[in-house]
Structure formats: structure tokens, C-alpha cells
Amino acid sequence: MEKFKHLDKIKEIYAEGGNVIQYLRGIDKDDSRENTIEDILISYDFQSGSYIKSYASRLEYMNNYCQALATIIDDFGDVDSIMEVGVGEATTLKTLLDCLSNKPKGQFGFDISWSRVKFAKEFLNDFNYDSVQLFTANLFEIPLADNSIDVVYTSHSIEPNGGKEKPALEELYRITRKYLVLLEPSYDFANEEARERMVKHGYVTALYQTALDLDYKIIENRLFDYCSNVLNPTGLIIIEKNDAQPKTGSNFVCPLTKTSLEKYDDHLLYSNESFLAYPVVDGIPCLLKENSILATKLKTDFTQYKASHNIVY
């Protein structure tokens, strides 16, 4: 995380209302139109709290947006688990849960920014949604097994990953068991001004074509019923998993090795196979690969170790 060296400057830019991602992209000096994971993490972490600040003023729009999404998900029938990718501060997830006629037992959300997840956790608790499992993770290295979640959805969370449509879709499809619902910028349905803006900001522009190229079963592709910005029109793509998939459970796995993680104590998850440990900060599992700690001797009892090696001081 080399750009963490610039946090003092970024703090100034954010306080002055500047564009943090544009500044971070300028550091690279390679004229890339792609936003790096580090750019996205830093920008979003500084924004933490902004969605909750505006939640009350946007309530009517949020209710309409989420009711339209809830109608789609309710029509899927039996859904045991649901997850929002890029959950942010959970304003969409909370409102969607309010709108769903049949609330799945398993409710999940993750974001790359720990601070946003912290706000999401407290926000959900305010409305008694205290059973939602929140965690930090990278969209491209989700710490869940294949076919873990019945319905996976996004809401402008793949958005800043222009040029990475294929790995993003492949990872989301991997963990999805039944349906993948994408509410993302629609380049195909946008006007020229909106398209230029998407390219300038490094947004995704080829989700639909990429899904076609991957031979996914697309059951719907259209403009969504609601959009808050005409220059960033929301498209709806619904992908159905090609074959019925067995349930694999939704326990965490190591994002690097996909080996299972178990609770070591209240502050640590550990993989016996990979020897990697991941911290749990304020009740939030931190499951980016950058958070991993190599701890081959975590479970070694020091007294037994000395005895087995005849160590005497």
C-alpha cells in the first residue's frame, strides 16, 4: 500500500472537496484510465459516513429504488441467503431488507473499506438488523467458497473498476449459487456525454458484453427503473447460474488459498491449512489478503514444544 504515504495530502484534498481518486491516479504517472484497488480503498474510506448523512434526504428515492430491486428478488422464489457486494454504509442493504417480502435467513455484506463497514454495522444496529454478517474484502478475492450465496447483488460497486469487468464477473459468479443481480452504470444505454464521463472516471463500460463472452445465462438486460444521475444511468443485468448448484455454506475462507477459516478467538480467524491469520477489528473480520498474518506457530504450545525438544535453560 505505497499510496498510504500520501494520506496527509489526501486528507487535505478531501477536506477541500477535491477528487481523491483523480489525485491518486495522477501519482502513477502512467496515463492509466484504470483505478487501482488502493485508489478505491483510500477514496471510499475517506468518504465514510457521507451516505448516512444524506440517507434521510434521499429516503423516498431509496425506498423506490430498493422496492424495485426487492420485487425482482422476491420473484426468484426460495432464497436462503443474500449478499450486497460493496455494501458501503448499508443504506441500500437496510432499505432492501425493509422492502423484501421474504427476508433470507442469511444476510451478508462486504466492502473494501473498514471504516464504511464500521458505519454500516452501527447503522444496521440502529434498525435492529444486528444479524447481518459484515466483513471487509476485495471484490476480486472474495473470502467465500464457490456457490456460497443464493443471491448476490451489486449497486454501483463494480462501477470504478473499468477494464476489470471479466475478473469481477468471474469472481461474483463463482460465489453465486442462484442469481447474480447487477445494478451498475450502463454504457450501452447511456448517451454520449454520459459515456465520456464513464470513461474519464474509469467506470465499467462492458459488463453486458463480458457476460455474453463468458457465456453466462443473462435473463434480463435493461435500464433500471430508478437512477439518481442521468449522466450515470443505472443498468440492470440479471444472470442465472447455469445449473442447480449444491449448497456449500457461507463460512469464511482464506482469500488467498480458499482454505477454511476458523475462529481462533474474538480477535482472530485462522486457516489451519495455509497458516494465515486474519484480524477481527471491532467485531469486523478483515479479510483482504493484505490483512493476512503468517503464523505457522499460532497453535504451538510453548511448554509442550520445549518438552518435546528437551529444551532446558
Question: How is the secondary structure organized here?
Answer:
Elements: H1 7-15, H2 20-28, H3 37-47, H4 50-55, H5 59-74, E1 81-85, H6 91-99, E2 106-111, H7 114-126, E3 133-136, E4 149-155, H8 165-175, E5 176-185, H9 192-200, H10 207-213, E6 217-223, E7 234-240, E8 262-265, E9 268-270, E10 276-281, E11 284-285, E12 293-294, H11 302-308
Parallel strand pairs: 1-2, 1-4, 2-3, 4-5
Antiparallel strand pairs: 5-7, 6-7, 8-9, 9-10, 10-11, 10-12
Describe this structure in words.
By secondary structure, the protein is an alpha/beta fold. The chain folds into 3 domains: 2-50, no CATH class; 53-240, 3-Layer(aba) Sandwich (Rossmann fold); 262-308, N-terminal domain of TfIIb. 34% of the residues lie in helices and 20% in strands. It has 11 helices and 12 strands. The protein has helices at 7-15, 20-28, 37-47, 50-55, 59-74, 91-99, 114-126, 165-175, 192-200, 207-213, 302-308; strands at residues 81-85, 106-111, 133-136, 149-155, 176-185, 217-223, 234-240, 262-265, 268-270, 276-281, 284-285, 293-294. The strands form 2 sheets. Strands 3-2-1-4-5-7-6 form a 7-stranded mixed β-sheet, with helices on both faces. Strands 8, 9, 10, 11 and 12 form a 5-stranded antiparallel β-sheet that branches. α2 (20-28) runs antiparallel to α3 and α5 crosses α6. The longest helix has 16 residues, at 59-74. The radius of gyration is 21 Å and the shape is globular.
